[in-house]
Amino acid sequence: MRIHHVTAALGSLAAAAALALATTAPAHARTGAVSDAPARAAADCPQGYVCFWSEPDFGGEMRAAQNPQHDCEATPVQPARSVYNHGSDSRTFSSKPRCSVRVGSLEPGGSARSIEVSSWQ
């Protein structure tokens, strides 16, 4: 899994760090149900889609989107608190509407377990 940070402004540095931290489970959480969350997300998210959950660790309501309809669009869950990219392209995520504050991007197969994003492209 590779995460590329894209910072649009100084204030987004903290958001980018949050995305990097969100994808790394602490050592004590690598056993049991919490560590199974990314595997569960991969199984639940249809191939070719990006899936968004309303809660961290791929909990709560899930919505899948295949491709953004526009250059930038709102996430189907507002805000999305975890994301799994089961598509074939890298996707960029932002913490604000209209992709104004970029948090980072996820390569295919990448996930963010605990994040807050509102738009993507």
Automatic annotation (TrEMBL):
<dbReference type="Pfam" id="PF03995">
    <property type="entry name" value="Inhibitor_I36"/>
</dbReference>
<feature type="signal peptide">
    <location>
        <begin position="1"/>
        <end position="29"/>
    </location>
</feature>
<keyword id="KW-0732">Signal</keyword>
<feature type="region of interest" description="Disordered">
    <location>
        <begin position="81"/>
        <end position="121"/>
    </location>
</feature>
<feature type="compositionally biased region" description="Polar residues">
    <location>
        <begin position="85"/>
        <end position="97"/>
    </location>
</feature>
<protein>
    <recommendedName>
        <fullName>Peptidase inhibitor family I36</fullName>
    </recommendedName>
</protein>
